[in-house]
């Protein structure tokens, strides 16, 4: 069953990163890997940068495993929209958190599945930092040098937050570099070469160098 996104308004799309081609690539990739997630039997699934809630809601609608679904976003407008998406689609067992995920030490060693479509667009380091301070839609795309400022912080957090059986699904753009792990899908969108990768804890440690 596809997630219902008809409630998302034009105003929402100006304030929160809307469901786009990279969103649906991430959704399709994670859904195609559901049998792997079922084997993990996750207790906690977290989406970092929940945005509209389309990805998290798709997983929360799935009845093949029972988990607590957590969405985190620095943009307060995004957390409100994600919550309305989950409610509209009659999802249960979820929590939405507005804040900086990298300050949430309470998640360490507890998360079984992390999902993230990070800000990956190449910008200056200064623009990345300014967009993160704004806590608005710009924080969802400005990625800093090589588009890696957020991604490198994500790796550090994921290594600490994942349980021993945990995995992370991350979307990235070819200019961000290459990463250890299993590439689940690739797609060219305009001038962007996008891919979704599944990484275990040891592969994340390798990425950290």
**DSSP summary, beta strand count:** 7
The backbone outline, from C-alpha atoms, is globular
Helix proportion range: 25-40%
Total number of helices = 8
Task: Give the topology, please.
Layout lengths: L9 H6 L5 H12 L1 H7 L3 E5 L5 H7 L7 E6 L2 H13 L5 E5 L12 E6 L8 H10 L14 H13 E12 L8 E8 L2 E9 H8 L1
Parallel strand pairs: 1-2, 1-4, 2-3, 4-5
Antiparallel strand pairs: 5-7, 6-7
Key words describing this protein structure:
single chain; 209 residues; alpha/beta; Rossmann fold; seven-stranded mixed beta sheet; 8 helices; globular
Can you tell me about this structure?
The protein is α/β, with parallel strands linked by helices and 209 residues long. The chain has one domain: 3-Layer(aba) Sandwich (Rossmann fold). Helix content is 36%, strand content 24%. It has 8 helices and 7 strands. It has helices at residues 10-15, 21-32, 34-40, 54-60, 76-88, 125-134, 149-161, 201-208, and strands at 44-48, 68-73, 94-98, 111-116, 162-173, 182-189, 192-200. It has a 7-stranded mixed β-sheet. Strand 6 and strand 7 form a beta hairpin. Helix 2 packs parallel to helix 4. The protein starts with 9 loop residues before the first helix and ends with a helix. The model has no long low-confidence stretch (mean pLDDT 95).
Offer a quick outline of the entry.
With 209 residues, the protein is α/β, with parallel strands linked by helices. The chain has helices at residues 10-15, 21-32, 34-40, 54-60, 76-88, 125-134, 149-161, 201-208, and strands at 44-48, 68-73, 94-98, 111-116, 162-173, 182-189, 192-200.
